[in-house]
Specification:
With about 250 residues, this protein is an alpha+beta fold. The chain has a single domain, classed as Alpha-Beta Complex (Aminoglycoside 3'-phosphotransferase, Chain: A, domain 2). The protein contains 8 helices and 9 strands. α2 crosses α6, α3 crosses α7 and α4 packs across α7. The mean pLDDT is about 95.
Length: about 250
């Protein structure tokens, strides 16, 4: 162990890496409860929980590497992306967990949240009105009835690890619960649209691509302001604002 690596840190939580151990510091113990419970239930590889002493959760590193990151280059063969899609399908077919997750917010709640956020993006001048209006129109397709599945809720590309074409671990389950499965697929492919076909092929069933595109717009609209206020830059090439611009 040569150093302590700060993986992510903001006012709500922080994750540190020390050798092969990740230390997650979170003052919201209910969120940690969700993460530990989800990892005990899902039929896909997850990190081993080493110990827990609030507000710290210690988990082991998982082997393998990710297929990339939002705003960074994507790696991996089409079969690797398909393997990720197959693992996501396996998760979605698991018995439903007791909780509703981030991907399970109701249509009314989402619509209200989206309208309020869009108004703030324009009134604060963070994004131009035409960009917000166009993506609000695209996002409308996500506001429809859906069949609940076991969802990760924050399935960013950086949260899925593979060794070749084998998924070796999926991390960060604090938003898990019952939800819209297409939310997970959209989150995983956000900013990497050219790999969507491979992921869907591995997923192995028909999906509504318009809804996935709607979730790309929805997720980006809802997080741009939060990211800007918490030390992240959604204007980085390939990140959320570029995702919104691609819909114009």
């Amino acid at each position: 162990m040569d150093e302590v690596e700060v993986v992510v840190a903001h006012s709500e939580r922080a994750t540190l890496r020390v050798g092969d151990v990740f230390l997650k510091v979170d003052v919201d113990q209910a969120r940690v409860d969700v993460e530990v419970e989800a990892m005990s239930l899902v039929p896909v590889p997850t990190p081993d929980v080493l110990w827990r002493k609030p507000p710290v959760l210690a988990i082991a590193a998982v082997p393998g590497t990710t297929l990339g990151s939002l705003g960074g280059p994507a790696t991996g063969s089409p079969s690797a992306w398909a393997a990720a899609g197959a693992a996501i399908r396996k998760l979605h077919e698991a018995p439903l967990p007791p909780r509703t997750g981030r991907a399970g917010r109701s249509i009314d709640v989402l619509a209200t949240e989206l309208d309020e956020e869009c108004a703030l993006l324009v009134t604060t001048g963070l994004l131009p009105a035409d960009l917000v209006t166009r993506n609000r129109e695209v996002a409308e397709a996500a506001l429809r009835p859906w069949t609940p599945a076991f969802t990760h809720g924050d399935l960013q590309i950086a949260h899925v690890f593979l060794d070749g074409d084998e998924v070796t671990g999926i991390i960060d389950w604090s938003e898990a619960g019952q939800g819209d499965p297409l939310y997970d697929l959209a989150t995983f492919t956000l900013g990497h649209e050219d790999h969507l076909a491979d992921v869907v092929a591995g997923y192995g069933t028909d999906v509504d691509l318009d809804v996935i595109q709607a979730w790309w717009s929805m997720r980006s609209l809802l997080v741009v302001r939060w990211l800007s206020e918490h030390g992240f830059d959604p204007f980085t090439p390939g990140c959320e604002v570029d995702v919104l611009r691609s819909r114009m």
